From TrEMBL:
Keywords: Cell membrane, Glycoprotein, Membrane, Repeat, Transmembrane, Transmembrane helix, Transport
Gene name, Swiss-Prot/TrEMBL: Aqp10
Annotated organism of origin: Podilymbus podiceps
Name under which the protein is recorded: Aquaporin-3
Subcellular localization(s) per the UniProt record: Cell membrane
Function of the protein: Aquaglyceroporins form homotetrameric transmembrane channels, with each monomer independently mediating glycerol and water transport across the plasma membrane along their osmotic gradient. Could also be permeable to urea. Also participates in cell permeability to H2O2 and H2O2-mediated signaling. In skin, transports glycerol to the epidermis and stratum corneum, where it maintains hydration, elasticity, and supports lipid biosynthesis for barrier repair. In kidney, contributes to the reabsorption of water, helping the body maintain proper fluid balance.
Amino acid sequence: MGTASFLKRAQALLRIRNQLARECLAELLAVFVLILITLSASAQMVTSSETKGNFLTAYLAGALAVMVAVYTAGGVSGAHLNPAFSLSMCLLEQFPWWKFPIFMAVQILGAFIASGAVYALYYDAIWHYSNGTLATSGPRETASIFATYPADYLSLSNGVLDQVMGTALLIVGILAIMDTRNKGVPRGLEPVVVALLVFSIEISMGSNCSCALNPARDFGPRLFTYVAGWGAEVFRWVEGRGRGGGWW
């Protein structure tokens, strides 16, 4: 009886009643889960020299990570996970503009924290693979574990078009899935269908820039690599780094 009473009091004390705080924490957790799985798959692929993973497994892990993340926060925050999606909801007047910068900051923070977790998880593997140097280019580079980089042949203008077109396709697909006037997805399976959408984009549009399609997914981890020792090169357009795994 005493233990049950204590647990109830603790639960009441820890319960978060502010709706915005609940949404932000849900979004933070969902993005953390998403990036943790996505970058871990990329780290496993890169540090094992693709003996324990390849582009297909990395893309599949990223798509499944989307599914898990949407299930994690969908009922609380709507599981935006992506500033581009939050912006689209604002433009469609389905999300208040004043929440947009808050959600964007939380999404970037979640991606940044997850990047630190992946770095800790694969710390020994990264340093072993890189021969003790955190390189952003070359045969032993590891920057592409965290952020996406363009293929050697890609021009800046083609890279912009690649990201705009891929992100637009993602948003259109999600809106179509959510539209109740369309042929409905069975209730509860929406995250699965979104994951399939992400996977289809990855395997069809991934060769140019590795399918970031999400400012938070790319900027958060990129910022982490900057402060963790890779240096300012992570923010420069450098040839020879176009292999990082990614998703939307």
